[in-house]
Design a protein that fits this description.
- This protein is 34% helix and 18% strand.
- Strands 3, 4, 7, 8 and 9 form a 5-stranded antiparallel sheet that branches. Strands 1-2 form a two-stranded parallel sheet. Strands 5-6 form a two-stranded parallel sheet.
- α2 links the parallel β1 and β2.
- α10 packs antiparallel against α11.
- The radius of gyration is 21 Å and the shape is globular.
- It starts with 30 loop residues before the first helix and ends in a 13-residue tail after the last helix.
C-alpha cells in the first residue's frame, strides 16, 4: 500500500485486522523484536502487523500523540498495543531491547539526552513532530517574582519547596543537576517529586487558596493555559534551550513497518494544532473517550499533517 499525501485513502487492509489476543509486552510478538520482517502475517496482530506503543499517561504530550498514532496506524491496517509505563528510563530501555516498538513523544535532544547517549545506537529516530518544546518553572500570576533568580532568598514564600514531577523525568534531573546549583537554591529549597498529577493537584490547591507555589513545568502542556500561572524567566539558561519532540522507534522499525514509518515521518504539528490535540484528548473528552477526541481533532484539522489517513465509506 502506498501513502498518498494530502488525500483520502481507501484502506481495505484495515478491514483485515484480527481480534486475536495481543502478546504481552516483551513476549516476542511486538514488531521491533521479531527480526523476521514478516509484518504481513495476520498471526502477528493486524493485517500489517502489531506495533506496541509505550507511553507515560501523565505526560500528556505522549498520551495525546499515542492515541493519534493509534488511530492513524489502525487505519493503515496495523494492530496497535498501548503499553502504559511510569518512567522515561523504562521507555528507552524498552525501545533498546525491542519490548516496545515506539515512544510517541520523546525529548531526545536535551531533556532525554542522557538516555540517548546510553541507548541511542539501538533506537531509531522516526522524525520530529513539534519544534518548540521547553522546560520551565512556573508560579501563580499573583506571585511577585518574575525569574528563577528571584527564588534565591525567597524560600519562605514557598515553604522551601519546589514542587516537581516524577523522580525519573528529565525535567527533574535538569532541576536537580542544573537549576538548583546554578541559582544556588540547594541550601534553601527541597525539590519535592512524586508525579505530574500530584504536582497539578498541589498547584490547583495553592491557586484556590491564593498561596504562593513554584512548580516545574514544560511547554507545550495544557496546564499553562488552564491555570492562572506565569513562566519564570531563566536568565542563566539552566533549563536548556528549546528542543523538538520526536517519535522514536526500536532499531529496525522503518524496515519492518515501512508504511507506518512513512506516515509518522509526515507528522508535524504547529502550536495551534498541537494545543487543540492535547486539549481535546485531555480536557474536552478525557479518559475513556480518546478515540472520540481524535475523531474531533481530525474533523477540525483534516490537513493537520501531510500523511493524514482517513477512511472512505
Amino acid at each position: 500500500m502506498t501513502l498518498r499525501r494530502n488525500r483520502t485513502m481507501t484502506l481495505a487492509g484495515a478491514a483485515l485486522a484480527t481480534s486475536l489476543t495481543l502478546a504481552a509486552c516483551g513476549g516476542g510478538d511486538s514488531g521491533g523484536d521479531t527480526g523476521d520482517g514478516d509484518s504481513g502475517d495476520p498471526a502477528a496482530g493486524g493485517a500489517e502487523g502489531t506495533i506496541t506503543m509505550g507511553f507515560i499517561p501523565s505526560w500528556t504530550d505522549g498520551l495525546s500523540t499515542a492515541y493519534l498514532l493509534e488511530d492513524q496506524l489502525t487505519k493503515l491496517g496495523y494492530e496497535v498495543e498501548m503499553e502504559e509505563l511510569t518512567e522515561a528510563a523504562l521507555l528507552y530501555t524498552g525501545l533498546a531491547e525491542g519490548d516496545v516498538d515506539m515512544y510517541p513523544s520523546a525529548w531526545p535532544e536535551v531533556t532525554h539526552a542522557q538516555y540517548m547517549e546510553e541507548y541511542g545506537d539501538r533506537i531509531e529516530d522516526l522524525g520530529a513532530y513539534y519544534d518548540n518544546a521547553k522546560l520551565t518553572f512556573a508560579v501563580p500570576t499573583y506571585t511577585e517574582i518574575e525569574s528563577i533568580a528571584d527564588l534565591t532568598g525567597n524560600a519562605d514564600m514557598f515553604n522551601g519547596q519546589i514542587i516537581g514531577i516524577e523522580p525519573g523525568a528529565g525535567l527533574t534531573a535538569a532541576t536537580q543537576d542544573s537549576v538548583m546549583p546554578t541559582y544556588e537554591l540547594d541550601a534553601d529549597y527541597e525539590l519535592v517529586t512524586s508525579s505530574t498529577s500530584a504536582m497539578l493537584t498541589e498547584l490547583e490547591s495553592a491557586l484556590n487558596d491564593e498561596e504562593d507555589i513554584v512548580v516545574t513545568l514544560w511547554q507545550p502542556f495544557w496546564a499553562n493555559s488552564a491555570f492562572d500561572i506565569k513562566t519564570l524567566e531563566d536568565p542563566e539558561g539552566a533549563l536548556g534551550e528549546a528542543e523538538a519532540l520526536h517519535f522514536l522507534g526500536t532499531q529496525g522499525f522503518a524496515e519492518e513497518f515501512p508504511e507506518a514509518a512513512e506516515l509518522i515521518a509526515g507528522i508535524q504539528l504547529d502550536d495551534e494544532e498541537y494545543g487543540a490535540l492535547e486539549d481535546m484528548v485531555v480536557n474536552e473528552y478525557g479518559e475513556g473517550q480518546e478515540a472520540e477526541a481524535i475523531d474531533a481533532f481530525l474533523e477540525q484539522y483534516p490537513d493537520a499533517f501531510e500523511t493524514v489517513v482517513t477512511e472512505e465509506g
